Amino acid sequence: MLKDKWVGSVLPAADITRARDFYRDKLGLEPDNPDAEDNVQYKCGDGTGFLIYQTSNAGSAKNTQIGWIVEDIAAAVAELQATGVVFEEYDFPGLKTEGGIARMPDGSAAAWFLDSEGNILSLNYMP
């Protein structure tokens, strides 16, 4: 029933103005609803999108909440680092980042960073 439907994500923000500034200044995104006060909606590739809403629950999840598929993960990481985005470094059994990027045996790769609200976001490469 849902396999052919577009899907989006919903992220929490303790401070919607701070979140709006982060997504504009660091990620280069502009909201589709610039006049809204308690939420912002963003459109991304192929009709996908996400919403950020104001809540005191922001930053409490310890898992990746949204990810973008990129064609060149090293270039995407470097571009975001140039805007001030800091990538996480992980060293877990089966997952280790180097320069912020985890490379998998199948050729895929991922890199994680936090937004202004403490949400975990990712860049993903899939060969």
UniProtKB/TrEMBL annotation:
Quote the InterPro entries the UniProt record gives: Glyas_Bleomycin-R_OHBP_Dase (IPR029068)
Q: What is the lineage of its organism?
A: Bacteria, Bacillati, Actinomycetota, Actinomycetes, Micrococcales
The organism named in the record is Arthrobacter oryzae
Gene3D superfamilies, sorted: 2,3-Dihydroxybiphenyl 1,2-Dioxygenase, domain 1
- What is this protein's record name? VOC family protein
